[in-house]
């Protein structure tokens, strides 16, 4: 990417709807939208603002007076791109572009642009392309609805609008089918890698959290890896896994996943479901929160909602890590320590300084040890493959030979038991 060329001058608008007031504070919401825009290197955010709305207008989203007022503001600041922090219908987008004579992107479009810029692996690129096409397909169909009225009679003869819709829709569908086939091949390869990891007797610990909560910084601190970690939304997209030796505990595989965000486009949730399946395979989930952020509670609710939508059951062992305590004043930090001391599933840490990490690692080791249960298995002489697998997993506590085969006492996790049953 050429960094010496002039960057596009952008303005960020956050529509504050009455229906949103109970859910999100508009100030941190606007700050997040500006940070999203800043995550694209080709954009220069020259201004931002909150626009209060009683209700969205179907034609322009904003009322006519506000549209004119903003047109003057954007013209005076030589703005080339306006980012609307919320959903826009194709009609609203087209009308605002005509009124303001600028390019418009809504929240979904912006996040898709960021993901397209960040994806590095073949799988990530394919997922983003599929998500972008799915998004374009819905907007394409809606954008042409005004032409569908040209259909005559009983609808057996399509007008020019319908012809254009069908041609464009078919082109997108064909491209989606091609991408899906390519992605299926990549996913099969990753499944083979996952099965190979399943043969290694290491529990999986997945880091999840809102984007920019500090997951990658924590991952780097614990593993010594050099995963990209910046004060930027969606700095990393592709999942990374490393082996970590816990103090006085087992070796584990630590997984760093893509960050979540409020109102994550449904197209992206669907596209990245395969990647996020790493979370479903985890023995323990560590939810990393930026406790210094003004909207930390809202962010936590968004993460929990996405985990639930992925099918992560409530019974899965889970820790909550309150990160970035180094950014808090001493009084707030002391209050956090008191609260975490009363709850064994809460930990106050700083991934930057390392403060609070030892208790977290010790708790992870204990939790993984507690999930193991003892069981006695009887194997026939012909089941040498299953017996060898148990020894590979290092779960055999005792073994004795019988007339028909072997009796083994094993100590294993539910995940290992499920894998054994599938052999």
Provide an overview of this structure:
By secondary structure, the chain is α/β, with parallel strands linked by helices. 46% of the residues lie in helices and 20% in strands. The protein contains 15 helices and 13 strands. A 6-stranded mixed beta sheet has the order 6-7-5-8-9-10, with helices on both faces. It has a 4-stranded parallel beta sheet with strand order 2-1-3-4, sandwiched between helices. It is globular, with a radius of gyration of 26 Å.
Task: Offer a few descriptive terms.
four-stranded parallel sheet, six-stranded mixed sheet, 15 helices, alpha/beta, 13 strands, globular, 423 residues
CA-based shape: globular
Provide the gyration radius in Å.
26 Å
**In percent, how helical is the residue content?**
40-55%
Structural class: alpha/beta
Which stretches are low in confidence, meaning pLDDT under 50 for 5 or more residues running?
A: 141-160
Separation, N- and C-terminal Cα atoms:
48 Å
Order of helices and strands: EHEHEHEHHHHEHEEHHEHEHEHEHEEH
Mean pLDDT, rounded to whole units? 81
Strand order of the largest sheet: 6-7-5-8-9-10
Number of helical elements: 15
Strand content: 15-25%
- Biggest sheet overview: 6 strands, mixed
Number of E-type strands = 13
Subcellular location: Cytoplasm
Pfam families: GTP-bdg_M, GTP-bdg_N, HflX_C, MMR_HSR1
GO cellular component, one term: cytoplasm
Function: GTPase that associates with the 50S ribosomal subunit and may have a role during protein synthesis or ribosome biogenesis.
